[in-house]
Amino acid sequence: MTVVSAPGKVYLFGEHAVVYGEPAVPCAIERRATVTVEPRDDSHVRVEAQDLTLDGFAVEYADSPDDRPDVDVPKPLLDAATGYVDAAVEQAREAADAPDAGFDISVDSEIPLGAGLGSSAAVVVAGIDAATRALGEPLDRRELADRAYRAEYDVQDGQASRADTFCSTMGGAVRVEGDDCTRLDTPELPFVVGFDGGAGDTGQLVAGVRSLRDRYEFAADTVEAIGDIVREGESLLADADPDSDPSAELIGELGELMDINHGLLSALGVSSRSLDTMVWAAREAGADGAKLTGAGGGGCIVALDATDETETSLQYTTDCEQAFRAELATEGVRLEEP
Ligand SMILES: Nc1ncnc2c1ncn2[C@@H]1O[C@H](COP(=O)(O)OP(=O)(O)O)[C@@H](O)[C@H]1O
Ligand SMILES: C[C@@](O)(CCOP(=O)(O)O)CC(=O)O
Ligand SMILES: [Mg+2]
C-alpha cells in the first residue's frame, strides 16, 4: 500500500491570465489530498472517492464495463467527476511503461472540490506519485509536475496552466510563466480563506475567459493587465526578507494589488455574487486586500489579514459557509506510507 499526500493552493495573483502565458504566483496551503494506491493482479482500476458525491452518493467505481458507478447521473457529469483520477492513472501507466497495470485507489481530501483551492491538482499529483511508486518507478519532482500538468490539460480540454500542479508538487510559493516554473522564497503571508460552500467548473470558466479574450481586444488587454499586477507584486516579494514577518507596508501593498486583481477577474466574468460579498466582508473587516482564488464562479476567496478580524467577520457573513486561516505549506507532495 502506497500513501501520498499533496497540498492545495491559493492564488496570491494571476489565475486565468496564466493560461495565456502571463505570470502567476500560487501558494501551497496546509490542506491536503491523500491518495492510497494498491496494485491489483488484473488490469482494472477501482476508485473510492468519499469526498466526491454524485446524486448524493460518494463515488465508488471501477473501469470494467459491468462495474460502472451505480449512480443515476448523465455520463458527461460522471466523466467530469472521475476524469482527473482517470487521467492520473493514465499518466502513471505511461510513466512506468505498464499500460495494463491495475490499481485499487482511494482518495481522501481536506480540500473542497471545485472551490479554487486546487483539489484537482492535489489529487492528480498525489495520485500519479502514489501509482508510480506502487509500480516501483518513482518519478523525480519535475517529471511528476509535468505529468500532472498533462493530466489537467487533457481533462480541461487543452486549457490549463502549469501553475496548480507545479505548486502542489513543490509546495511553498511559486512563480509560473508558460513553461517556466520556479519556487519563490517569500515571507509567510497571513492568508485567510472564505468558502461559500459552492463550486465552479474550471474548464467552463476558462473557456468563458478565452471567448471574451478572442472577441474583445479590451478583454485581451485585461488579461495582460493581470500580468502587470503579478510583475508588480513579485518585485515587492523579491525585496522582502523571507525569514522575517512581512512588514505592514508590504502586506498593504500586496493587498492593494489583490484588490485590483479581483476587479479585473470580475470584469472577465469569473466572480459571483457570493464571492463578491465575501471579498467586501473581508475588506470591511480590515483585510489589506481580498480576491477570489482559482477559476471562480463560486468557491473561495483569499484575503490578507494578520489580525483575527477578517476570519471572524467572514464567519458571520451569510454567504460564507466556512472561514479559516491558511498556513503556507512549505512541503509539496509527500510520501506518507510505507
Ligand atoms: N477528493 C476527491 N476525490 C476524487 N476526485 C476529486 C477530489 N477532489 C477533486 N477531485 C477532482 O477534481 C475536480 C475538481 O477540480 P476543479 O474543477 O479544477 O476545481 P479545484 O481544482 O479548484 O478544486 C472534481 O470534479 C474531481 O474530478
Ligand atoms: C483558472 C486557472 O488559472 C486556475 C484554476 O484553479 P482551480 O482549478 O480553480 O483551483 C486555470 C489553470 O491555470 O489551469
Ligand atoms: Mg483545478
Automatic annotation (TrEMBL):
InterPro entries: Galactokinase, GalKase_N, GHMP_kinase_C_dom, GHMP_kinase_C_sf, GHMP_kinase_N_dom, GHMP_knse_ATP-bd_CS, Mev_gal_kin, Mevalonate/galactokinase. Homodimer. HAMAP family: Mevalonate_kinase. One of its GO terms (cellular component) is cytosol. Keywords: ATP-binding, Cytoplasm, Isoprene biosynthesis, Kinase, Lipid biosynthesis, Lipid metabolism, Magnesium, Nucleotide-binding, Transferase. It is found in: Cytoplasm. The keyword Signal does not apply. Catalyzes the phosphorylation of (R)-mevalonate (MVA) to (R)-mevalonate 5-phosphate (MVAP). Functions in the mevalonate (MVA) pathway leading to isopentenyl diphosphate (IPP), a key precursor for the biosynthesis of isoprenoid compounds such as archaeal membrane lipids. Pathway: Isoprenoid biosynthesis; isopentenyl diphosphate biosynthesis via mevalonate pathway; isopentenyl diphosphate from (R)-mevalonate: step 1/3. Residues 251-309 form the GHMP kinase C-terminal domain. It comes from Halonotius roseus. This is Mevalonate kinase. PROSITE patterns: GHMP_KINASES_ATP. ATP binds at residues 112-122. Its cofactor is Mg(2+). Its EC number is 2.7.1.36. It is an enzyme of class 2 (transferase). The active site is at residue 164. Residues 3-39 form the Galactokinase N-terminal domain. GO terms for biological process: galactose metabolic process; isopentenyl diphosphate biosynthetic process, mevalonate pathway. Residues 84-172 form the GHMP kinase N-terminal domain. Belongs to the GHMP kinase family. Mevalonate kinase subfamily. It catalyses: (R)-mevalonate + ATP = (R)-5-phosphomevalonate + ADP + H(+).
